Amino acid sequence: MLKLHLRKMSSSSSQNYAQDFVNFLNASPTPYHAVHNMKAHLLKYNFKELKETEAWEFGNQIQPKGKYFVTRNNSSIIAFVIGNKWTAGNPIAITGAHTDSPVLRIKPISNKVKEKFQQIGVEVYGGGIWHSWFDSDLSIAGRVMCKDEKSGKIVSRLVDLKKPLLKIPTLAIHLDRTVNERFEFNKEAQLLPIAGLVNESKGKKTGCCGNEDSELSDTQFSSIKSIIERHHEDLLELIVKEVSLPSINSIEDFELILYDNKPSCLGGLHQEFIFSGRLDNLTSCFTSMHGLSEAADVDLENETGIRLMSCFDHEEIGSSTAQGADSNFLPNILERLTLSNAEGYVKSLLLESSAKSFFLSSDVAHGVHPNYASKSEEDHKPELGAGPVIKINANQRYMTNSPGLVLIKQIADKAKVPLQLFVVKNDSPCGSTIGPILASKTGIRTLDLGNAILSMHSIRETGAARDIASQIGLFKQYFATYSKTYDDIVV
């Protein structure tokens, strides 16, 4: 039996992983930041970046025992390690996660003033528990498209303002005595953050020329209102300072997201919890990243397969985007890897690899809630801290079946990682994941699993510290041994 030199998990290493994860969460307020930090981690492990715009020739750009990653839109990333004995038609061990979470995004025209309050227009993204955003200290992060003074090109810069800037205030109970019975609000009119008080000494700004009705010369004409007309100047000045731009005029556009300014942290009487936003689903991004990087060199000399991690944007809104799981991102990478290693264009080898491969669709699961235990199916109550949860649904909202369950059990037994089982109640709705999307798109056998959390889609979710190490251990074992395990289970 193959002996793996993988780091043994102790309580101290478990805590280290949890603290590392907290640090990752605090540095990753947006998908752009998450992918940036994942790239930095992979580079530290000697992965090399590839570009979709360039040719990948086996033996040149990619080669046996090579470690690589490629991004799309800077919000999705795929990383892979090629076994020394890889040939087209061999298996690929794949994990999948998503980088996005339900958030509030700043609208293209966000400049609002009401009752002498400066307000920011926001748009809901995904299915958040929006009442949890009220009365939280909110900051702003994202990416800014700006002019590079040296090259004259438009480039993308990450920005994180890292300070409490906004607040969505609730109405005082004295003005709404029913607020504790039901909390209802209009998402367009009342989920609107305040950003400051109007500074009347600055005077009213009427646009780039001081008179919005005046005609613009050809050199002044802009097909879209200028950035300073669309957004509060005070916000733009904060961005200019943070990104070290010469002036507001350097900003062409941006994609900015609101997030809870309160840092992610370990909590509980024994620091057994992780309190944070974005556990859904930066949890699986972090654990799959570590699983791949730490297993990358394990018995790579004899590896016949490929070990691959994928993290996609836009899962929370259906995945049907250029960088979502329903795009051609993963199929394109699989095709490049398989066919670049084949003699000529042998399509059947890609299909053969797909038939031998396996996809672990990893997204967080619903842990049993002590105050709402009746919401869980009585025999399937995932506990926080008790290991990854295998998600099963007869209506195929999750893709787990018996052969996949047997396979993951064999891997978990070797890694000594406990697993749990989850199904929803028959009278409850069931969410879904990227698993069914990619299974139907590629034909690759798929299983859904993830760590249990509470308050999924809240601005502040709760997970278990020890589950981070458990899932990393499972993923490490999966990447290191799948190619030697898959054909033991005959379907």
TrEMBL record:
Its EC number is 3.4.11.21. The keyword Metal-binding applies. Belongs to the peptidase M18 family. Its cofactor is Zn(2+). The gene is TPHA0H01750. This is aspartyl aminopeptidase. GO terms for biological process: proteolysis. It comes from the Eukaryota. GO terms for cellular component: fungal-type vacuole lumen. It is an enzyme of class 3 (hydrolase). One of its GO terms (molecular function) is zinc ion binding. InterPro entries: Peptidase_M18, Peptidase_M18_dom2.
